[in-house]
Structures are given as C-alpha cells and as structure tokens.
C-alpha cells in the first residue's frame, strides 16, 4: 500500500502515524495539516480556468492526532480573481486555516527568473530525513546544508506518498509540503539547543511545478527576539516557480 498521511472516512480525515508531530507527542505535524488544507482548497470549483497565485497556511493551535474535519468556503468570487478558504476542525475547534488566491489564466509576457541549480541526476542520493520519513517514500538529493548542518540549504526532493489515501499528489499539494521544509533545511540554529516550530507558510507562485523532482533553496533570518523567518526559492527542472516564507517560533529546547 502507498504511504499516506490520511484516510478519508465520511466527512473526516483519519491521520496515520506519518502525520505525527516530531515536536509534541500525540499531535499532528505541519506537513500533514498544510497538505490536507491544500487538498481541500483544490476541491473548491473555480468559475474559470485559473491558477493559484498565493497560498497561505496558518497553524492556529496544536492539532490532536485524531479524526479531522475539513470545510471550505469561497471568500471572494469572480471570473478573474477568486479567493478560497479552508479550515480543519478537531472536536469542533478550528486548528488550522488556509487561503488560496486564484487568478484567471491568460497569455501574457514571460519574465524569466534566474536560477542555476545542478539537475537531480547529477547529485548523489542523500539521507536528508532518514529512511523512515514519509513512510520511506521520499527521495532526496542534497546540494548544500542539511538538518544538522547550518544553513543555507539546497535540496532536491521527490515525493512518492499520497496525502489522502487513493488520491495522487497534485503539483499544488507538493508545493505546500515543500514549503514546510524551509525551517529545518535553512536553519542556522543549533537544533540540540533550540526548537524552531513553524507557525505558518506563505507561498507566492508564478506557475505550478512540472515533473517529479522539486528543489528548495532555504535560508533563515532572525533578530534574536524569539522569532525567525525562513525564506525559500522553490524550483523544478525549468527553474524557480515560487517563493515561500515561514514564521518560526524559536525557543530553548527543554
């Protein structure tokens, strides 16, 4: 069976062990919540052919590793611009929220974004998160940095899991998942001394990614006041397709 984060059960999504948080026992992780919110947003119909130009994800509270209800609504409707909101609820309490800004597709000038990264086949395989991550379904090729190496970090990733059982990963869901990697990959904090849990993700896209391999180029900034910001370039073989940011809650490790 293909590794998956959730199994749909009626109106609920039941999390598997892949959704478990590394920060707090019995809670869900940000990758799981963000991917599920994005999956829900994609189920909302668009009034015209549109692309997602912005995706924001907010983790509002710790989410128990329990059946999770999703709901969506259209915040702004229009044939040129549409905004969709999704929420996740556990025991009738909202634990996470996402909004997507959709823009109608049209033929307009291409403005190239520079990005010169070695293709994944020229980079040796790496063990970025261990062979158990994502149920052993994820392949990585590390160009720079690492979880135990001070950032910046650059990494190729190929996801082989399903976020919801029986549903193939879409380009937008893979983008949301990749946007959660920035804090760990680009951190310059000592992980033995400090924790840096993500509070949100914001992704601005000029297009959706193409192909199985995606790249993240991440670095972190902080003024030393208990908060940090992860800045990311997201790319595929054709070059950068998005920029992403995370707000990180920095605290001493207990």
From TrEMBL:
InterPro entries: ACOT8-like_C, Acyl-CoA_hotdog, HotDog_dom_sf, TesB_ACOT8-like_N. Pfam families: 4HBT_3, 4HBT_3C. SUPFAM superfamilies: Thioesterase/thiol ester dehydrase-isomerase. Residues 20-102 form the Acyl-CoA thioesterase-like N-terminal HotDog domain. Residues 120-250 form the Acyl-CoA thioesterase-like C-terminal domain. Gene3D superfamilies: Acyl-CoA thioesterase, double hotdog domain. This is Acyl-CoA thioesterase. It comes from Sphingobium cupriresistens LL01.
């Amino acid at each position: 069976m293909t590794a998956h984060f959730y199994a749909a059960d009626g109106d609920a999504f039941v999390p598997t062990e892949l959704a478990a948080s590394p920060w707090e026992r019995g809670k869900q992780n940000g990758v799981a919540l963000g991917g599920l919110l994005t999956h829900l947003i994609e189920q909302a119909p668009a009034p015209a052919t549109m692309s997602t130009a912005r995706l924001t994800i907010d983790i509002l509270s710790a989410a128990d590793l329990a059946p999770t209800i999703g709901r969506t609504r259209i915040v702004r409707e229009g044939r040129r611009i549409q905004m969709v909101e999704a929420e996740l609820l556990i025991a009738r309490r909202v634990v996470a929220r996402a909004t997507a800004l959709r823009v109608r597709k049209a033929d307009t000038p291409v403005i190239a974004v520079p990005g010169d990264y070695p293709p994944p086949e020229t980079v040796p395989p790496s063990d970025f998160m261990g062979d158990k991550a994502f149920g052993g379904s994820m392949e990585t090729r590390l160009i720079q940095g690492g979880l135990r190496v001070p950032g910046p970090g650059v990494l190729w990733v190929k996801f082989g899991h399903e976020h919801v059982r029986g549903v193939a990963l879409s380009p937008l869901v893979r983008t949301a998942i990749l946007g959660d990697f920035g804090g760990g990959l680009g951190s310059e904090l000592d992980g033995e001394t400090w924790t840096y849990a993500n509070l949100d993700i914001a992704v601005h896209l000029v297009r959706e990614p193409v192909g199985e391999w995606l790249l993240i180029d991440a670095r972190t900034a902080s003024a030393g006041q208990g908060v940090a910001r992860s800045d990311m370039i997201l790319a595929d073989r054709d070059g950068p397709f998005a920029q992403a940011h995370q707000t990180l809650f920095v605290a001493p490790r207990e």
